[in-house]
Amino acid sequence: MTYLWIAIAVLLGAASLLGMARLVVGPTILDRALSVDVLLASAIAGIGAWAAFHRDPTVLPVLLVLSLLGFVGSISISRFVARKQRDKAESHERSGTP
Q1: The domain spanning residue 19 has which CATH number?
Q2: Which residues form the signal peptide (predicted)?
Q3: Cα–chain-centroid distance for residue 16?
Q4: What confidence score (pLDDT) does residue 72 get?
Q5: 3-class secondary structure, 44
Q6: pTM, 2 dp
Q7: What is the radius of gyration, based on Cα positions, of the chain?
Q8: Under-50 pLDDT residues of the chain
Q9: How far is CA 12 from CA 3, 22, 26, 95, in A?
Q10: For labelling, which of 14, 18, 69, 82 has a CA lying 20 to 30 Å from the CA of 40?
Q11: 28 in helix, strand or coil?
């Protein structure tokens, strides 16, 4: 059981580190949004693994809130980027630049 915990910790830690690297380096807002989703998924997986091993159902509401937060955040950012690109395209059309 200890080896399994070590493997889970290493994999989730690696995913978190790669997500943090993409958050710092990522040139676009979509790269940063994706990295926040990776960090959130890592946290959800870690909490879920802990709950499964300890057979503790009290953290299920926390998992539900985190998953809803990730979903709503992703949708909000994608709508923001889509609106920004649409406004940019409309301004190019009005100015006559390709």
Answers
A1: 1.10.287
A2: none
A3: 10
A4: 93
A5: helix
A6: 0.80
A7: 19
A8: none
A9: 14, 15, 20, 49
A10: 82
A11: coil
Q: Which amino acid is at 48?
A: G
Domain that residue 66 falls in: 2-95
Residue 42: count other Cβ atoms within 10 Å of its Cβ.
19
Q: Quote the number of domains for the chain.
A: 1
Residue environment code for 24-41, b if the CB has 16+ CB neighbours within 10 A, otherwise e: eeeeeeeebbbbbbbbbb
Q: Which two tokens stand for residue 74?
A: 């992703």
Q: CA 72, CA 21: separation in Å to the nearest integer?
A: 23
Rounded Cα gap, residues 36 and 18, in angstroms: 11
Q: Is 76 helix (H, G, I), strand (E, B) or coil?
A: helix
CA distance 43 to 40: 5
